[in-house]
Design a protein that fits this description.
The protein has two domains: 267 residues, Aldehyde Dehydrogenase, Chain A, domain 1 (3-Layer(aba) Sandwich); 182 residues, Aldehyde Dehydrogenase, Chain A, domain 2, CATH 3.40.309. Helices cover 39% and strands 22% of the residues. It has 15 helices and 21 strands. Its EC number is 1.2.1.3.
Length: 471
């Protein structure tokens, strides 16, 4: 068993000042794998001080210097892709192919920011004035455990391109992944203090960072409750705040869709990353007269789901991240049954043949109504609700009948699906399957958040505009 007790501050690894220990558990076997010594408020303060001291110099670096740094980061992450993938599998059970894809996103995010920076307009004429975009200052990036490398890199790429210095507060459930990513920063020759990484609890390290008077930008990805708390507590200082929060994405199956194909896609959309994704399409909306046929197609498509050891090549679904999440999802499944939803596949307990590990039976419910708890709350596990609609107007009403609005999916004839996508209130709508565009904005409507990330939007998110008027 290994002991992770390092933070990355001011360009070097140092022992965390915090003394609280967290036992690290392999979610596949439930066996202990090591200890994480978590950072504390003192570590958080040192990290902000380091970023503040580095800001004056880094904010004045040239476009070329920042482009070169972004490419160096991309190279360093690409060189450690194998280790990053293994750590992802070990810490939250992502199937190997999905983990490999997610690790690969990080290098791409840095390279894209470098390309966009080549001709990014930091200064432009507007009317008779000169408008200058300048870096906002020290940024705090709080990232979740379920997509660590992508979350860190997409926020960090925009911040570095803009000229901000950063403190990353990484989840305590991704200690090894955080350590490896910090090693990538070090290998890339990150200037001291420009990026600092501390791992620890949100109610300790997160609160110390978001409440620090020298922090001018907060970018948080995580739960609605924590996001709202950050927004309330930041009101006195008014730092710039970006929140990427929860989702309850609809997958709208139009009546011209091939139901067998739609069932395969709906399961892939709902169960990606073991269902632990804010963009998961966890509400499948199906024309009422097609419900029985769609559920039959779901049963057939479910035969391709292979639940088991995520290190095995054929596995498509691994365990959930920890016992707390396992019990949370089991509770939602029981809630669905109690409310009258009928399981097409799955149900309570572990899949057959798996008596250890935080494995959940992939579950699809039908006879679901929009007022049921399982149809309204983010479950964050492999649970899909099938809801019937009468016509397209009704489908649009159900799709938007949610406090969230992060992502949505439409399956059907392409032009018709694209037309329907315009009726959904969500930050992204994917047509006929899972799609990702790193240049497109990402963020949510309503309670799914504030602001946008990715591409030029992630750079703009770390800039303040200043107008210089007159001769």
């Amino acid at each position: 068993m290994d002991r992770l007790d390092q933070v990355y501050i001011a360009g070097r690894f140092r022992a965390a000042h915090g003394r609280e220990e967290l036992e690290r558990i392999d979610p596949t076997t439930e066996e202990p794998t090591g200890i994480l010594v978590m950072a504390d408020a003192h570590d958080a303060g040192l990290a902000v001080d380091s970023a503040r001291d580095a800001f004056a110099g880094f904010s004045r670096t040239s476009r070329r210097e920042r482009i070169d740094l972004l490419h160096a980061l991309a190279d360093a992450v690409a060189a450690r892709a194998g280790a990053l993938t293994e750590a992802t599998v070990a810490e939250y059970g992502a199937p190997m192919e999905q983990a490999r894809w997610r690790a690969g996103l990080a290098a791409g995010n840095f390279r894209l920011a470098a390309r966009l920076l080549e001709d990014f307009a930091f200064e432009r004429r507007v009317g008779g004035s000169t408008v200058i975009a300048q870096p906002v200052g020290v940024a705090v990036h709080i990232v979740p455990w379920n997509s660590v490398y992508n979350a860190i890199s997409v926020k960090l790429a925009g911040a570095l391109a803009a000229g901000c210095t950063v403190v990353v507060k990484a989840s305590e459930f991704s200690g090894l992944q955080n350590q490896l990513f910090a090693e990538c920063l070090d290998a890339a020759g990150m200037p001291p203090g420009v990026v600092n990484i501390v791992s620890g609890r949100g109610d300790v390290v997160g609160e110390a960072l978001t409440g620090h008077p020298d922090v001018r930008k907060i970018s948080f990805t995580g739960s609605n409750a924590v996001g709202k708390s950050i927004l309330r507590k930041s009101a006195d200082r008014l730092p710039r705040v970006t929140l990427e929060l929860g989702g309850k994405a609809p997958t709208v199956v139009l009546d011209d869709a091939d139901l067998a194909d739609a069932a395969v896609k709906a399961l892939a959309i709902a169960f990606a990353n073991n269902g632990q994704a804010c963009i998961a399409g966890t509400r499948a909306l199906v024309q009422r007269r097609q419900l029985a046929s769609f559920c039959t197609a779901i049963e057939a498509a479910s035969s391709t789901i292979v639940t088991g050891d995520p290190r095995e090549p054929g596995t498509t679904m691994g365990p959930l991240v920890n016992r707390r999440q396992f019990e949370r999802v089991q509770g939602y499944i029981r809630m669905g049954l109690a409310d009258g939803a009928r399981p097409v596949i799955g149900g309570e307990g572990r899949p057959r043949g798996l008596d250890r590990g935080y494995f959940v039976r992939p579950t699809v419910f039908t006879d679901v109504t929009s007022d049921m708890t399982i149809a309204r709350e983010e479950i964050f596990g492999p649970v899909l609700c099938v809801i019937g609609y009468e016509d397209e107007d009704h489908a649009a009403q159900i799709a938007n009948d949610t406090p969230f609005g992060l992502h949505a999916y439409v399956i059907g004839e392409d032009d018709r699906a694209r037309a329907f996508a315009r009726r959904i209130d969500a930050g992204r709508v994917a047509i006929n399957g899972v799609a990702h565009d790193p240049e497109a904005p990402f963020g949510g409507f309503r309670e799914s958040g504030i602001g946008r990330e990715y591409g030029v939007f992630g750079i703009e998110d770390h800039l303040e505009l200043k107008a210089i008027l007159g001769r």
